[in-house]
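Format notes (please read before filing issues)

Several people have asked whether sequences and structure tokens are stored in separate files. They are not. Every record keeps both together, in the order shown below: the sequence lines, then the token lines. Line labels are part of the format and must not be stripped during preprocessing.
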Amino acid sequence: MTSPIQFCLVLHNHQPVGNFDGVFEQAYQDSYLPFLDVFEPYADLKISLHTSGPLMEWLDQRHPEYVDRLAALAAEGRVEIVGGAFYEPILTMLSSQDRIGQIRSYSEWLENRLGADVQGAWIAERVWEQNLTSDIAKAGIQYTVLDDYHFRQAGLEVEQLDGCYVTEDAGRTLSVFPGSERLRYLIPFAAPHETIDFLRSVAERRPGAVMVFGDDGEKFGTWPGTKAHVYENGWLRQFLDLLRENQDWLHTSRLSDAVSQPPVGKVYLPDCSYREMCEWSLPVARQKELAALTREFEHDGRWPRIQNFLRGGFWRNFKVKYPEAGEMYARMMMVSRRLEDAASRQTPGNASLIQAATQELYRGQCNCSYWHGAFGGVYLPHLRNAVYNHLIAADNLLDQAENKPAYWVRANANDYNFDLRQEVLLSNDKLLCLIEPANGGRLYEFDVRSICHNLLATLTRREEVYHEKVLAGANQHQDDVASIHDRVVFKQEGLENCVRYDSVERKSLLDHFYALDANLENIRLGQAEELGDFVRGRYETRLRRNPDRIQVQLTRQGRVGEQSIKITKGVTLEAGGGALEIAYLLEGLAENQPLHFAPEFNFAGLPAGADDRFFFHGDSLALGQLGSLLDLNDCVDLGLADDWLGIKIRMEANRPTSFWTFPIETVSQSEGGFELVHQSVVVQPHWRCAGDAEGRWSVVLKLDIDTSLAESRRPCEAAATAKS
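Then the structure lines:
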């Protein structure tokens, strides 16, 4: 072969913001470190490496010697350091300003710490829209890698996907490499010689071609079964040996080497991601239909030609498929816009606060909890909590930058979630509430500022395509290494009995009416009939303002069965207050026909299964862990404590009250298999309401939030951080 082909091995190492420290460490020990140990002696081979910002910061803090080794290999020209957006956001969900800021800030960090000349960028999850081109180019990037799926969707043939292309937007150009889907499935799952054989077939067809593998570094040790396969069984050494032995026709190259060749053509790429992501973003019914069509036609000889014209869904629709992702996105955009406004009025006195708020915003844009596919994603509470933690922290810093007084309260109405309906933002120096009058008058975000925690970072149980496998009870414990897309493993027994779906989103101030004989069991199982039309109904809104106290008053005339009643609920917040007061007034009740009224509250980020997370009554009486089923009668209060988080929530009523509690758990898919995940705790006070002489019934609930335990730890935590 007179003209060798170039093979670019591009690894993407990533751990999300908010992932557990033990997961970072395990991935380091199983993937990142052993790969470097095996690769380093092969002095004549080259690779390109992207390490996401969250992981790189962790490595620099916990294993700086590893980062030093990367810097040395980069200086030798053996490892190209690929940049990207600092905290691994999906670029299409960011403003232009945030896209450019994230990319530039990470390039600067890599150049300062590793001495790297950053020219290329990794695009998170290869989610692409053509207008990204100009922003990426403005950020100083010359080239990137997408999947060959993008190019096939643009109309190119597979035989054309062996070189670099140029694309353009608004007069700015960017070089784009197609990453081979075939290589993604061969490496590291097939025998090493199969990859060499495939590359040889390319070399025979087109000498001088450029072939790119671009995929997760966690495939080399962290994915199930791959540690033994890649290292203990010698796959990686065998593969590198073969690359070395075939250097007469196969050169390993960095992207920066390959991009120096003239592009093979120009292309404009459609809005998409890799094939699997496009499938995951579809509604469940359409996912099932696509899977059925694939099974029906995949053995037809015409299928490969037909498949090139199939399109999946659109990444942005994850915000519709999972409204919780849409809520995080809307909250992120609130902070982004507020930060942009603050930056336009920056002064020397608040510049450091605005810079710190910018970094917190960027961390809250980390992509992993905004979608779901083969990885846990939006189903993982600790990732959702991390997003809100950083967004709330950014808000707090902007409050300081604006010199807000120590105690304040405010309320605003606006379309905060981009649905053309107005929501209400009620906040003070300690709490923030977002209320949706047009959707049941529900409370859908409840931030505790002192600990940067959203108590309503919940997740609703909904159907997923893979639930068919769960319900079938197909437990295949595979011993051989397999792609995570092909594995069917149950991490717990009996998951088929845990699949349930919610008829309404798991939020708070959901106004239910049930039959008089409804009980905890049929409520928990979702078998109780909803008799009212209030849960999703539209409430009229009025704001009542005093200098240090604001009430959002929500009113709806609706029906319970054949009976017409009116609900007015007032949500009140005071300046400097750490409590939310909720007053209900029901009108139009019959004195001799009681109604079973049960407003629902959900509390997220308070896990079950630990003795330091528990229900309590009064000041101290423990009633069991937060996953407990409680059926309490004639109480005036119920509390939830999380000593690890340092918070106590106490719900107090001004009349005798019954309480139901039960956990919300989802059955979801992750790279390790199917698992049961605790999402929130339901607390439902309920009463049999009979009208007085005027047909009225009322109750006042007070939600008191106490974070004194968390706040008492701060001096100790600060001292520990200083010592470390």
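For reference, the curators noted about this record: The chain has two domains: 5-272, 466-711. Confidence is low (pLDDT under 50) at residues 717-724.
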